[in-house]
Design a protein that fits this description.
4-stranded antiparallel sheet; alpha/beta; 471 residues; 36% helix
């Protein structure tokens, strides 16, 4: 059938099959060669990269661990942090990863507790102090008419403003504080399940009197005042700092570099930073304390310290240094002012060694401060700075120790307790704790008219008013 005819020519069927057989043979040869090249000759190829972490959506499982839980390498770091090691060891459970979660304002209650276990120490202590005698409406009424006081409600997850006794010059603090609280409310997935609360806070640096209120700072042992995040977590425009989120990015860019057009531009390694302690500030807010710093550093090669006079334009032009450029120094001095200093949280965002005198005033994140041991994240000196030179010189002689403290500071504060996520968690925990020792607030001024006692935040933030005529 496949043979030749009597003339020696291929049969008709063979002539039809022969071209297809040739094609099959050639294809088999090509497939064999391709396989041989791929597995024996060609270089190994990397598997496809996962989508960038910042582009993942809620449908991808964010904010839970994705298929690549390890954070991007951080410039100047000596090795994986305890946080990174925990993430690698527990791939099936959620852990906080700064590169992914730092700006997530909507972490759950369980996630907030897991991520920031030290953040709520003072809140919990305050609850215990008022368990036996709850806060009353009469106590809140005692603040009525006092300068700097703002009274509000959170009702069914909505923010209402009942009264505002702050002066116009302090209005940015009012707006910034309310904006931060509102952001924490609307980010919560269970917003309507939050308790109804009535509160009073002061926009002064600290509170006074004996009635309970929320304050930016307080002294140790003060059981009248409940700490809240300060206005700078939203924005601090007056000294040119601006929004907290933008400033965090600028400061991280100095330390860790940035990616521009797909190319990573390296940051400033700790060893490359100027080996000096840096400070700029006004003397008049804490004369004795800050003059001691100036005296202790005068004419020292290891110091770059100058006073700043906010009432003198020439002084500002000569001495004001952008906050992000503080990160270019190895050591940053932190001094209290009238009470707390608003710059502290920014200094802790640098991969630098923060040097602070013994502190009298507390802020919400202070439970995470460590001045000794392997987890030290700042250096503590005497309030008169008498031991400052000895401690700075020691760190200059032991650069590995200085780097370790700087790295610990980044892990503890920039990437953990001073993140926007931590701030939002704190606000919601404060609301729940405050309600546990207070009263159920009234929504209506009069049950017959059903008129709300407060102005919705969304209207107040536009007008700045509690009353106006329709027009």
């Amino acid at each position: 059938m496949f043979g030749s005819d009597v003339m020696g020519r291929p049969s008709c069927l063979w002539r039809r099959v022969q071209p297809w057989l040739a094609v099959a043979v050639i294809s088999l040869v090509l497939v064999s060669f391709t396989s041989f090249y791929r597995y024996s000759i060609a270089p190994a190829r990397s598997p496809p990269l996962p989508p960038p972490r910042w582009t993942r959506t809620l449908e991808d499982g964010w904010p839970f661990l994705d298929d690549d839980p390890s954070p991007a390498p951080r410039n100047n770091h000596t090795g994986p942090s305890a946080i990174d090691q925990e993430a690698a060891a527990s791939p099936d459970s959620w852990v906080f990863i700064a590169e992914r979660d730092a700006e997530n304002y909507g972490l759950t209650v369980a996630q907030c507790q897991s991520a920031f276990p030290l953040l709520y120490d003072d809140i919990d202590r305050m609850v215990q102090s008022r368990m036996a005698h709850h806060i009353t409406v009469e106590e809140l009424n005692s603040h009525r008419g006092r300068n700097g006081m703002v009274r509000g409600l959170v009702y069914d997850g909505d923010l209402l403003i009942v009264s505002n006794d702050a002066t116009h010059s302090s209005n940015t603090r009012v707006m910034a504080t309310l904006q931060s609280l509102h952001r924490a409310l609307v980010a919560a997935s269970d917003r309507r399940a939050l308790p109804n609360v009535e509160f009073v806070f002061t926009i002064d640096d600290f509170g006074d009197g004996s009635a309970p209120m929320w304050t930016y700072s307080k002294k140790h042992g003060d059981d009248h005042f409940w700490l809240m995040p300060d206005f700078g977590y939203w924005s601090w425009p007056e000294p040119g700092v601006g929004s907290y989120g933008r400033m965090r990015r600028l400061m991280a860019r100095v330390d860790d570099g940035e990616v521009v057009d797909g190319v990573h531009r390296g940051g400033l390694d700790f060893a490359q930073k100027t080996p000096q302690i840096f400070w700029r500030g006004a003397i008049k807010t804490a004369p004795a304390l800050r003059k001691s710093l100036v005296r202790a550093t005068r004419s020292k090669a290891w110091a770059n310290v100058s006073a700043l006079d906010w009432d003198n334009r020439k002084s500002i032009q000569a001495n004001l240094v952008p906050m992000e450029d503080h990160c270019r120094y190895m050591f940053l001095a932190h001094t209290e002012g009238r009470s707390f200093s608003g710059r502290a949280k920014y200094l802790h965002n640098c991969r630098s060694v923060v040097v602070a005198h013994k502190l009298e005033w507390m802020e919400a994140h202070h439970a995470a401060l460590r001045s000794s041991g392997p987890h030290a994240n700042f250096v503590e000196v005497e309030r008169d700075y008498s031991d400052l030179e000895v401690k700075i010189q020691r760190l200059l002689d032991r650069p590995h120790e200085a780097r370790r403290i700087a790295d610990n500071g980044v892990d503890a504060f920039r990437d953990r307790y001073l993140t926007p996520a931590a701030e939002a968690c704190y606000w919601r925990r404060l609301l729940v704790a405050w309600r546990s020792v207070t009263f159920e607030p009234r929504l209506y001024r009069d049950n017959d008219t059903r008129e709300w006692r407060g102005v919705p935040f969304e209207s107040f933030i536009l007008t700045g008013k509690l009353h106006w005529d329709a027009h």
